[in-house]
Amino acid sequence: MKEKTFEKELPEEYREAFHLDARNLKFGLIFNAIALFITIIVMVIAFVLLALGDASITFGPNLLGAYIVLMVSMIAYIVLHELVHGIAYKSLTGEKLTFGMSWSCAFCGVPNIYTYRRTALISLTAPLIVFSVIFIATAAVLYFVSPVYYLIVSFLFGLHLGGCSGDIYVTILFLTKFKDKSTLMKDTGPEQFFYVKE
Ligand SMILES: [Zn+2]
């Protein structure tokens, strides 16, 4: 029999074990601070790598163009990141999705069901893996072509990695606290509820 990816109703023997809310002030501030820190670290590494090469940064007359590319890419990235979560959830469950934004982050959830650990982990890590590969590969090519665009993509990678800090945190919870494959998660978007068998 094919493994179930979710439950419509919470089975009786389950109890709530943990709850996260991205709209919580403390949680939102901590994760945005972590995101900023990660972005700074990535940019320091990007500049060091650039300094180690012999490329010279020339901010020519195309700086405005580069700025527009950065802004458009940032907005597109936020939308695509949530879309990749959604594609993973949708293809695994076929259930209704929810998308939105809170003061602390953009989100995608599958609010009406309880997903099994494996389903949740695939959806959580999909954007992290997909966009890390895309940004690192693009930055590696641009390193030799255009230092300015290399730095822009590095910055996008930093924002991406930092922006994934919430996803990474929930992933770590699954890898440490909730290792049992019977663990269920209800993901409303901004909130995640963990349920374990009693
Ligand atoms: Zn995410």
What do you see in this structure?
By secondary structure, the chain is α+β, with helices and mostly antiparallel strands. It has one domain. Strands 1, 2, 3, 4, 5 and 6 form a 6-stranded antiparallel β-sheet that branches. Strand 3 and strand 4 form a beta hairpin. Helix 2 packs antiparallel against helix 3 and helix 2 packs parallel to helix 4. The longest helix has 31 residues. It is elongated, with a radius of gyration of 19 Å. The two termini are 25 Å apart. The site of zinc ion has 5 residues, from helix 2.
Shape: elongated
Mean pLDDT figure? 93
Please, how many helices?
A: 5
Poorly predicted regions are none
**Major sheet: size, sense and barrel closure?**
6 strands, antiparallel
In oligomeric terms, what are we looking at? single chain
What fraction strand?
15-25%
Output the structural class: alpha+beta
How many discrete structural domains?
1
| Order of H and E elements | EEHHEEHHHEE
Rg result = 19 Å
**Cofactors and ligands present?**
zinc ion
The helix fraction, in percent, is 55-70%
Write the layout of secondary structure elements.
Elements: E1 6-7, E2 14-21, H1 25-52, H2 63-93, E3 98-101, E4 106-116, H3 117-143, H4 147-163, H5 165-176, E5 184-187, E6 191-197
Antiparallel strand pairs: 1-4, 2-6, 3-4, 4-5, 5-6
Helix pairs in contact: 1-4, 2-3, 2-4, 3-4, 3-5
The structure holds zinc ion (ZN).
Zinc ion (ZN) binds at residues 81, 85, 127, 164, 167.
